[in-house]
Specification:
heterodimer, A: alpha+beta, B: mainly alpha, elongated, disordered C terminus, ARM-like (chain B), Clathrin/coatomer adaptor adaptin-like N-terminal domain-containing protein (chain B), ARM-type_fold (chain B)
Chain lengths: ~190, ~775
């Protein structure tokens, strides 16, 4: 049996394998995204961050935020962290005054997503040093950049906190260096006299 | 120079927090500013403006699609800072219809080919979000190159993006697949996780094509220690095992190992889910999975309870023993404070074949489940029910459970739903017909209340019946002799309503002489047949001992007598003058008035008209009527005195009796009169005790229900049903006040008490299950209604 399998892995058979796969594929396969959107909302219902991995128009986004905030902010403290909503599941967790919500499909693993949320919070904590809501209010773009290193196409891409921190700081350094250069007097003069 | 004086994003946010003018005016002022700034040629100014705009769009829902072209401009900057802002704006706001979408193709290509890995990552991230068919097609060569990049950071991202590219441009599969498979052998856990994620998706769409890669996945399953990777691999095997059963055998062993060894609950849950959904034939694995579910169910963490119940409901159809093993935990969950846990427990119970469950466990447990389900579902005017058709079928199913003793509650809910939920009426009529036609039901004493509700519902909403003829046959079948007279009376009245409806549609069909609007078309023969069947069925009752039955039977027969003549004279039906027509139309009018739920406070709202005396003693009556009214002998009054009609005498006697009796009724005039009346005419009163000596036969003296059980369809709750939440819930009529919850109340219950009653109910359930002895004692005392 092992021989049979390994022979299948010969390059030659790949070709027929590819083609069979391609031929069976419909024009648009609509692959499922695990996380459809991420929403951070404060206790008072103020939005702190929104990231959409599925297509939602601007109007739909406002509607979703309103509805979901209503559902989640009304939940008591000791209840479970999963809510059924419009045929999807929303996993949420409250950290201090912020609710972190991620919307997933019925087949996905809720505990896994809960861990992803916790992962994100820990990275934020490490980056900002004891992160609080105010940090996210004023550095909302940084929260986005961090989230972009954590999730891509609605899936987890980096499970190591150290790596994410390293990448973000490298990018920060790039930006800093560029700013210094642009802010130097010679550059300003050059710009003004263009 | 401009951007030295430009407000940065931070300034904007600060200003927002300090503003006194009001949010919308602040936002519109900021927007004006942004519109000006964004047109500047200087890229720094432009990008700052764009940055502020992205903030407003993301947090405050402002539309930013008008700035699409500016975003494209900003992205073309060489500075990383600008690029990042530009790409973020693009990812956030571009969609398939954005007109400038094609303009970024070249920029994306440049960035994807950049040596700076962060620029590459920006490009990939953007492609993953907004990729269209054209973009995917044009950029798939770049993605292919990146899949083989030396930098693992880049490879990881490229793998993450690949699915989107495949989705929009399937031909890319040819090009990229080999690289993907090569990446399966990588040692980098992040890349591996991404690749396995891709295959997870591919496996769900087309499992058989991923089957040849099974050995690779198997290796990962055994060797990997990374939980994220393992969860994805488990999902793949769940899909593959359903296509190739032999895989299941191989995989069961390692999965059990993981279940035993790991501490991560997410992994345990995924293992359990894989086992019960795809490997349900492997005994050892299933046993271990159920044991783990048991552990979840007894944890304090509501998340684990919820997931345990969810896994159990997947396992339940094939492994009923799993539910029975955990039945205490399940019933406890029914009264959990978290509504999600409660609902999940409910779904679990309803997904199972309740017949089998109750056959295998004792009747007390059955009834406890039934009553919990009924009370949870009916709380707050059926708040949690979305699909009433399902719920009504469920009520019908409950009726068929052997040893069901909750007749009154089911009766009440059937009628209540009929009155409140218009959309559920067709299903109600269907379910009622199935119950009525079954002769076995008639012999079961406990089910009589349900039958009375079923017949009332069928009569009241007969317009939804598919075949009124069969309905009538069910209502007049000879075996209805087994019913007590008050229910018989309801049956006859329902027959009358059906008759009126049929005659009405027959006559209106005759008059219009084209197709009538009603769904049931009657020919001359069929209406005559119907009338004859009713006549034959009801005729014996016209001599019944019970006056109510007798009177109603005679009403129906009289009506038939009049209608028959007019039916026979077909010719005269063209004109409206036939008497039967007019009477039928009149009766239809009477019956067409919709009955709704009545508030408990309704009686209080009726103003007492002036001049009406309710409290005063009717002592004067004796002077007027004393010589005309003969005293009635009654055995139940202990005194040998002649019973006079004087109210005052009655009052004193009743007070004496009331104080010595066990009930705590206050000695008001009205209730003592009631007690007296009841003693005299006891047989006409509804029985309140289950162990009424007047009842027909012994409780267990009925044949088992026949195959007509299949008429009542009970769809188990499958995943597709949950997706149907999007279908709108039918309208449920609720009263503003006076809506009472009826479950388990003894006579003088107030609203406050009904809340604590729920808790005592759940405590009662728990104690009943945990100590079987106590349960037997309660049964002996008689279960309190």
């Amino acid at each position: 049996r092992k021989l049979f399998f390994s022979s299948l892995l010969r390059i030659g058979s790949f070709i027929s394998f590819f083609w069979s796969f391609v031929l069976r594929c419909a024009p648009s396969l609509n692959y499922e995204i695990m996380i459809h959107f991420v929403l951070l909302v404060s206790r008072q219902g103020k939005v702190r961050l929104t990231k959409w991995y599925s297509p939602y128009t601007q109007k739909e986004r406002s509607k979703v935020i309103r509805e979901l905030s209503g559902v989640i902010l009304n939940r008591g403290p000791k209840l479970c962290n999963f809510v059924e909503w419009r045929g999807y599941k929303v996993v949420y967790k409250r950290y201090a005054s912020l609710y972190f919500c991620m919307c997933i499909d019925q087949e996905d693993n809720e505990l896994e997503v809960l861990e992803i949320i916790h992962h994100y919070v820990e990275i934020l904590d490490r980056y900002f040093g004891s992160v609080c809501e105010l940090d996210l209010i004023f550095n909302f773009h940084k929260a986005y950049y961090i989230l972009d290193e954590l999730l891509i196409a609605g899936e987890l891409q980096e499970s190591s906190k150290k790596t994410v921190a390293r990448i973000i700081s490298a990018q920060d350094q790039m930006v800093e260096a560029a700013k210094e250069e642009a802010g130097s007097i010679s550059n300003i003069i050059a710009q003004a006299t263009k | 120079m401009d951007n030295m004086f430009q407000r940065s994003l931070e300034d904007l946010i600060k200003g927002f927090r300090l503003q006194l003018l009001g949010e919308s005016s602040f936002i519109s002022r900021a927007l004006e500013e942004i519109r000006r700034e964004i047109k500047a040629t200087d890229l720094s100014t432009k990008s700052t403006a764009l940055h502020k705009l992205s903030y407003l769009a993301a947090i405050h829902g402002v539309d930013m699609s008008w700035a699409a072209f500016h975003a494209v401009e900003v992205v073309s900057s060489s500075r990383f800072h600008h690029k990042r802002i530009g790409y973020q704006a693009i990812t956030q706001s571009f969609h398939d219809q954005t007109s400038v979408l094609l303009l970024i193709t070249n920029q994306l290509r440049k960035d994807l080919n950049s040596v700076n890995e962060y620029e590459v990552s920006l490009g990939l991230e953007c492609l993953s979000r907004i990729g269209t068919h054209d973009l995917a097609r044009d950029l798939s060569p770049e993605v292919f190159t990146l899949l083989g990049s030396s930098k693992s950071f880049v490879r990881k991202k490229a793998t993450g993006v690949v699915l989107r590219v495949f989705d929009k441009y399937p031909d890319a599969v040819k090009v990229c697949f080999k690289r993907l498979v090569e990446n399966l052998e990588t040692s980098d856990p992040q890349i591996l996780s991404a690749v396995v994620g891709v295959f997870c998706e591919l496996a769900s769409k087309d499992p058989s094509s991923c089957l040849p890669l099974a050995p690779e996945f198997f290796k990962i399953l055994i060797e990997s220690r990374n939980n994220w990777v393992l969860i994805k691999v488990l999902k793949i095997f769940a899909k593959l095992a359903s296509v190739e059963p032999r895989l299941g055998k191989k995989v069961a062993e390692p999965i059990c190992e993981h279940m035993k060894r790991t501490v991560a609950k997410s992994l345990v849950f995924e293992c359990v889910r894989t086992v019960v959904s795809s490997l349900s034939d492997h005994e050892a694995a299933v046993k271990l999975a159920v044991a783990k579910i048991g552990e979840f169910l007894v944890e304090d963490d509501p998340n684990l309870k919820y997931l345990g119940l969810h896994a159990l409901s997947i396992a339940a159809p094939k492994h009923l023993w799993a539910v029975l093993e955990n039945k205490e935990a399940v019933v406890k969950a029914l009264s959990d404070e978290d509504p999600n846990v409660k609902l999940e427990a409910l779904h679990l119970l309803m997904a199972m074949d309740s017949y089998e469950l109750c056959a295998k466990s004792d009747p007390l447990f059955c009834n406890e489940i039934i009553i919990s389900v009924l009370s949870v579902c009916s709380r707050n005017a059926y708040e949690i029910i979305v699909d009433f058709n399902w719920y009504v079928s469920l009520l019908g199913e409950m009726t068929r459970i052997p040893n069901c003793q909750r007749g009154e509650e089911i009766e009440h809910q059937l009628i209540d739903i009929g009155m409140r939920v218009g959309d559920a009426r067709p299903q109600l009529v269907r379910v009622s017909w199935a119950l009525l036609i079954d002769p076995a039901m008639l012999g079961n004493l406990f089910l009589h209340p349900i039958l009375s509700a079923a017949s009332w519902v069928s009569g009241e909403y007969v317009e939804f019946a598919k075949n009124p003829y069969e309905l009538v046959e069910a209502l007049v079948q000879p075996r209805t002799d087994l019913l007590p007279p008050y229910i018989r009376a309801i049956y006859i009245h329902s027959v009358f309503k059906v008759l009126v409806f049929c005659l009405g549609s027959y006559f209106s069909a005759q008059e219009s002489s084209s197709g009538s609007s009603s769904t049931v078309a009657f020919t001359y023969e069929s209406i005559l047949n119907l009338v004859n069947v009713i006549e034959i069925g009801v005729w014996p009752l016209s001599g019944a001992y019970d006056v109510e039955v007798q009177e109603r039977a005679k009403n129906v027969l009289g009506f038939i007598g009049m209608a028959k003549q007019d039916i026979a004279k077909k010719v005269n039906l063209q004109d409206n003058e036939a008497e039967a027509c007019r009477v039928t139309a009149f009766m239809e009018d009477v019956f067409s008035e919709e009955l709704g739920p009545i508030s408990a406070n309704a009686q209080e709202k009726v103003f007492v008209p002036d001049g009406l005396e309710l409290e005063e003693n009717l002592g004067d009556l004796e002077e007027i009527c004393g010589k005309f009214l003969k005293p009635v002998e009654s055995d139940s009054v202990p005194c040998a005195d002649k019973i006079s009609f004087s109210v005052s005498n009655l009052r004193i006697r009743d007070q004496q009796e009331a104080s010595s009796s066990s009930t705590s009724l206050p000695p008001k005039a009205s209730s003592s009169l009631l007690a007296e009346h009841r003693k005299r005419h006891g047989m006409y009163y509804l029985t309140s005790e289950k162990n009424d000596p007047d009842s027909n036969g012994t409780p267990n003296d009925y044949p088992p229900a026949n195959d007509l059980a299949s008429e009542i369809l009970l769809d188990p709750l499958d995943p597709k049903r949950k997706a149907k939440h999007r279908k709108s819930r039918p309208v449920v009529v609720k009263l503003d006040e006076g809506d009472e919850s009826r479950i388990i109340t003894s006579q003088a219950k107030t609203k406050q008490e009904s809340v604590t009653d729920d808790e005592s109910l759940s405590r009662a359930i728990q104690s009943a299950l945990l100590v079987n002895k106590k349960g037997k004692e309660r049964e002996a005392k008689g279960i309190q209604i």
